[in-house]
Predict the structure of MULE transposase domain-containing protein.
Amino acid sequence: MCIRNNNDKIEKFLRNSANVSREEYKVLNTAKTLDEANALVQQLDVSKYRTSDLRDGTKYSYRCRYYRKYTLRRYEVQIYVPDNEFTMIKLMYKNAHCHEQRNVTGRLHSPIRESDNKYIKCQLTQGQIKNALSIDYPNIPLPINQLTNLINYTRRRDNPEIFSVYDFNRWCMNHNYDDNLLYSTFVPYYHSIKNIDDIFVFFTTKQLIQQIQFTALLQVDATYKHTWNNLPLLVFGSSDADRHFLSVWNRFGITKAQQEVFPQAKRLMCWAHTVSKIREHRKLVPADKWNEVDSDIHNLQLCFSDNIFNCAVSLLKLEWDNYPLMKQFQKYFFNEWIKKIPVW
């Protein structure tokens, strides 16, 4: 009897899931401009997660802002902007907000984390916080390891450790090169650190330094959002024959470093960023011509030498000259991506 009930529940769940997946988008509203459509979407408690370039328009997809917490029948919204009709932008939706059943995760629930933050600000001890949470949420289990980790994390976040410039200099001096340590991090060079705005530290290992000599190409990327004090962090290195990236870490500006350290080197633009920027100007091209233009640009990117690239550019210009309606896009493309930034 129990097995049959479970089978019935599973069958019902699969049937409902199939119905949800087959549910089509319905028209929610219309707008005359993209700004007006974005203003309408902001009222729906959703967040953008995808932009799709379609054959005849552009689609902006949104989903429930709390989709990680509530995964059942996720609310979705789309803005569809056609290429040939700029005054009729459709807002479509599927499903509805359903915040009744939370997703099962290993984290403590949001209300508990908020209460934990409040009690820590009141300078309560861990035992006092646990007793208070047990009273506030009597039906929710509070695993001691999760609660301990949450309390420690919150306290570190609100009261970060403080290091002086002297501590940083001393750390760099203590991490010298050791010929016997192949994989340990050391600092081969660092700029005399005087303040937080004047930092240059080079981290690497002996193994990485040995590997970098076998390639003539360097792969470089940088970030600053996820580092302590938002310091710029540059990662550069090379890939081996098995496509394993061998990184060497550093902190300085990509463009400035390339100009000062490798003045004769060519800096290639990220292809994903390049094609994304180009596609933002697709409306300068007739809708029935865009796929062909997009294919031409992708073929141009495949050129593996400067001579072939220059010849392909000349041929592409001759071809595009036959389409007067592309004159504005042609001017933009050749000025930005051939004259100013030809390496991508």
